[in-house]
Specification:
This protein is α+β, with helices and mostly antiparallel strands. The protein is built from seven helices and nine strands. The two termini are 14 Å apart.
């Protein structure tokens, strides 16, 4: 499958214009390498918007959800580097969830994705309806090469850390994260319209980050994965 493990960190963020160059330097040369070197982290990918509310979507994959609550990861969150502190203070529109992979089906990796974040309370029927919808999209769209549904650990996602405090802005947490992959951007544009119309029919599902299309901008794998 195209997701390498069962643990997934999903992050949306914008950044103030004055810090764009700083963000790219920090994210590519320090932050993603630092994260990927934590035991249990398998890969980090950053996507940039094609048609979406928020400019960047970053995805980290870990062997298990337990890695996202490990001492190694928490130590990094509570000891951010000076460059991290100086960069994340420019963040806004931050949505971040520590999630576990619930459903996944794929036949490859696509460099173009639809991503969306939702809240649903405690109605597990919604999880089943979203899963069925993803299966339908996968079945009916030959150019979709992967569909994934992740469920957040809300306690872990809301944990207060030094890095979170350094952002000095609200960090919204999604209950559910959907990822749909394709190798062809235009195919996803059409699927995004279909998906957006379908989720509007799911009673009780609240859209936190509306479905948007992104393309892969940067990827780094743990050399041992």
């Amino acid at each position: 499958m195209s997701l390498l493990g069962d643990g997934v960190i999903a992050i949306w963020n914008d950044i103030r214009w004055a810090a764009r160059e700083k963000f790219y330097f920090w994210h590519d040369s320090e932050h993603i390498p630092e994260r990927v070197n934590i035991p249990g982290f398998l890969r980090g990918r950053r996507f940039v918007r094609q048609n979406a509310e928020v400019e960047w979507f970053t995805l980290y994959e870990t062997t298990t959800m337990d890695v996202l609550q490990s001492n190694n990861y928490l130590e990094r969150l509570n000891k951010p580097t000076p460059l991290t502190i100086d960069t994340v203070k420019y963040f806004f529109n931050v949505t971040r969830g520590l999630t576990k992979l619930h459903y996944s089906n794929s036949m490859g990796e696509g460099g173009n994705v639809i991503v969306a974040g939702f809240q649903f309370g405690t109605n597990n029927r919604i999880i089943d309806e979203l899963t069925d919808l993803l299966k339908k999209i996968d079945r009916q769209n030959s150019l979709v090469c992967g569909v994934h549904l992740c469920i957040a650990d809300l306690e872990a996602s809301n944990q207060e850390t030094a890095e979170r405090k350094a952002r000095s802005n609200t960090n919204e947490v999604p209950d559910l994260v959907v990822i749909i992959e394709s190798g062809w951007a235009q195919a996803l544009s059409n699927v995004c319209d279909e998906f957006s119309a379908s989720i509007a029919q799911i009673d009780g599902l609240k859209v936190l980050r509306a479905p948007g299309t992104y393309r892969l901008e940067y990827e780094l794998r743990n050399q041992e994965s």
